[in-house]
Design a protein that fits this description.
262 residues, MetI-like fold, 10 helices
Length: 262
Amino acid sequence: MTDRPLTLREAVLLGAGGLAAFIGLWSLLSTTGIVPRQFLPTPLDVASRFFQLFTTPFAGATLPMHVASSFQRYAYGVVLAAVIGIPLGLLMGWFRLLDDIVTPIFDGLRFIAPIAWVPFAALWFGTGAGGPVMIIFAGAFPPCLINAYRGARFVEPRLIEAGRMLGTPNLRMILEVLLPAAAPSIIAGLRVSAGLGWQSLVGAELIVAAAGVGFMMVQAQGSVQTTTVMAGMIAIGIIGMLIDVLLRRAEAWLRRRRGLEA
């Protein structure tokens, strides 16, 4: 066994091999009838339906339109979580009194699964955009706050001491010392938030939405259109992967810029 890192070619070949094995097993189960084709269509059937949905409306919209509707809600929820969670986390890391006030409330709420807020979202917002945004916020907010807080708490003491010796006011200390020093931790938190927010969105749309990929999947499930359900799942997976890749690149760029990795 070796810890040698894989080359790009090796990683691509291994990934392609794993994907081929998965598709092969899927095709075998479907074509041999081990799983009825109505409930597990072949990869070719799903791929055909996936591309068909780009031009053929289902549940009132094409797949790109459903994705756009979902992504709009997602962006609202994640941005709101970041705008509130990151500053609050930094302030909690700097002001002990605020930390003592907020932490008990936060600890009591953050373990509630985002999907548990669905009944309240349905009661308060109906099938409008507010319900899914609230559920996305519930999933994305905790990692934003926690990572900003941890980043602020673990700032190098010499930086804080230097700022205090210069008589730097609290606001400048937060903006010019804590925020830059905590940036890698904040970006890492945003990656987690982005993933949890996307998962929370799909769960919300399965129940509290009148458009979006999750809504499309529910409508397809009701009429036993398994290919459409699986096409929606593929779209969800691709978008989630793209979001994570973009944030990973941003995190790597920031770490290189700060000299934290080669």
